[in-house]
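Give me structure tokens for this 414-residue protein.
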Amino acid sequence: MAVTLRSLEVAVPATVLHQDEVREVFSSQPGLSRLASRLVSAAFSTSGIERRHTAVAEMSLRHGSDGAEAVFFDPATRQILNPSTATRNDLYVREATELYTRAAAAALSACEGVEAADVTHVITVSCTGFFCPGPDYRIVRALGLAPSVQRSHLGFMGCYAAFPALRQATTICRADPDSVVLVVSAELCSLHVRVTDDPDTILGASLFGDGAAAAVVTGRDLPSPRPVLRLDHFDTVLTPVGEEAMAWNIGDNGFEMVLGTYVPHIIDEHITGALEPLLARDEGVAGRPYDEIEHWAIHPGGRSIVDKVEARLGLRPEQVTASRETLRDYGNMSSATVLFVLKHILEQPHTGGEERICGMAFGPGLTVESALMTKLGAGTRPGGAGQRDGTRQGDGTRQGDASPVLDEVAAGVR
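Here you go.
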């Protein structure tokens, strides 16, 4: 049976960080060594990013102080401050809740044939903050979902977590085709910005931004006025090396990212092996050249990661345009980023017929999560997902009416 992602919407904070301006601020921070200042200039300038969004409004470089006490950034001295983890998490609770609910409301509002009362499951994703009752609870309350909705939260998994969330939603819908699963990822990476001479910290500061994305997944056979994604197969692979190259730890002054410069080389060396079990599930793509898969939704953890995947797999530049443009306009928003990439692909003109999509995201471990999907045109009935001749079903993991409420909450994302 077919399981489809029927709507996908995003939300970002209002404050925009322009990469060239942020680079100058970071490179001029007091206490930064001359070498670190040069690293800042190089990392920011070669990132492939033009702008990012932040939930920390006081970090805006184009507005003066509002008179409030500076906590994260002092506009008078242009100094980046170092608040405690508790202070950072307090802001996460407030700002992430707004992004979660705004993206979720927009996704439901955009999903024809599905109302808030139809939602049976909520899956939330984040690795940049914690609170309880958590975002899954807040979404149910804010959107007026049924109190019996089953809720799950995938926390602290890192950049690849959107795919396990979609895999879980697919498993739920294959077990009960009438299920409607709301998947919502929200990441506030900029809350954890710090100034040190550490190269990993500098690299993270040059890449990370804030954003949220929400998707409605169901097995219901519904018409759609816009293209949808059929969710065909998922797989998970741990590379034999890289455990120390990417990590996410909790420190006294925020979460501390370990993002080694060797990560792109690990991906380059192991990407083809990581894809083998996924593509072997579908005879439509197994054994074929990689560039015959129309779209590639690569999590743009950084420009060099997209470069390595494109070169190693022999892809055409246009096949990774969605990843590059997402990185350019939003930066790396951890788990939410690949959902932005998928939305970009959904919004590209549909060429007719079925367009295959291979998605990949990378995270601590080093973990490679992958997904094989199919873009279907507007009005197309999804048919039997994964039931082409010779394909195999399954996921591969190794090792009351609330429409007025939805319209009101979603208004801010349109």
